[in-house]
């Protein structure tokens, strides 16, 4: 089922009030899924250091700080939670490369078209997928991300969602981008000695099957692993050769 609520718990991850309350309660910082060090090869490979970067749903993660330490020069961070944005703006007022704005990722009309070279999403589409009207929210968010990317720019989606639940949303024909998929284990995961996976490195892309799904012989070593979708906005007006995977009634 494409709605994919399996990883949503009883909290409403699509609700700004939930996030405000959580950030008031927790303070500090927390990175969902992965730290920058593990994602660095993928990000550095597709988003050059001189890029204008948009971090959607930044929360209180240190990811953007780590990216600036690595040499990124211009990162705009947005989040629906004003609590998170106020905290982060105060915390990083001494780092001019980091900017923070409270904003709903489904309506980023504040920014003109083609404002960014790269957009990074770690857990934000996943949060919308747990909210009410999830497919509509996802479509609104992805349309905004696509609009804001310069031609040739890249959207990097880091998610627990495998291609059965994410491809129908990201590969719609209106989005003219080339998608490359990776899978990395959760931090601290150790491969079992009996693993039958033939993969030599997590840096190898996963060849997608004709239908846009994982190939039949793909062995998922870690069931709690994360997928990285690298979506490069194509500069080409001919979109006929870009596959689109069907939205089914489950998605809508
Ligand atoms: C799972 S957390 C991920 C936070 C951070 N990216 C990380 O990796 O640690 C999801 C974030 O998305 C934000 N969020 C949820 N819905 C949003 C929306 N409609 N617009 C912008 N941000 C949203 C939440 O406030 C939260 O900070």
From TrEMBL:
A single GO molecular-function term is: S-adenosylmethionine-dependent methyltransferase activity
Instruction: State the UniProt keywords alphabetically.
Output: Methyltransferase, Transferase
Outline the extent of the Methyltransferase type domain: 54-156
Task: Provide an example Pfam family for this protein.
Answer: Methyltransf_11
Query: What GO terms describe the biological role, i.e. biological process, of this protein?
Result: methylation
Q: Where is the signal peptide, in residue numbers?
A: none
InterPro entries the UniProt entry points to:
Lys/N-term_MeTrsfase_sf, Methyltransf_11, SAM-dependent_MTases_sf
- The source's domain of life comes to Eukaryota
Q: Which protein family is named in the record? A: Belongs to the methyltransferase superfamily.
Name this polypeptide is given: Methyltransferase type 11 domain-containing protein
């Amino acid at each position: 089922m494409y709605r994919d609520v399996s990883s949503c718990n009883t909290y409403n991850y699509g609700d700004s009030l939930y996030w405000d309350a959580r950030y008031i309660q927790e303070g500090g910082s927390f990175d969902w899924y992965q730290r920058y060090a593990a994602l660095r090869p993928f990000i550095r490979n597709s988003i050059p250091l001189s890029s204008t970067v948009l971090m959607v749903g930044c929360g209180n993660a240190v990811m953007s700080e780590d990216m600036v330490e690595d040499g990124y020069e211009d990162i705009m961070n947005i989040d629906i939670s004003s609590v998170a944005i106020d905290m982060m703006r105060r915390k990083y007022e001494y780092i001019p490369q980091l900017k923070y704005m409270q904003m709903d990722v489904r309506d980023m009309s504040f920014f003109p078209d083609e404002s960014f070279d790269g957009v990074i999403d770690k857990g934000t589409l996943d949060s919308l997928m747990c909210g009410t009207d999830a497919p509509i929210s996802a479509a609104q968010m992805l349309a905004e991300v696509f609009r804001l990317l310069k031609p040739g720019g890249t959207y990097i989606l880091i998610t627990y969602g495998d291609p059965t639940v994410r491809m129908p949303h990201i590969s719609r024909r209106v989005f003219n981008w080339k998608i490359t998929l990776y899978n990395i284990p959760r931090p601290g995961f150790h491969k079992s000695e009996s693993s039958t996976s033939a993969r030599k490195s997590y840096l190898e892309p996963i060849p997608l099957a004709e239908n846009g799904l994982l190939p039949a012989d793909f062995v998922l070593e870690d069931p709690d692993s994360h997928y990285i979708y690298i979506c490069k906005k194509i500069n080409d007006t001919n979109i006929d050769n870009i596959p689109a995977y069907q939205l089914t009634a489950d998605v809508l």
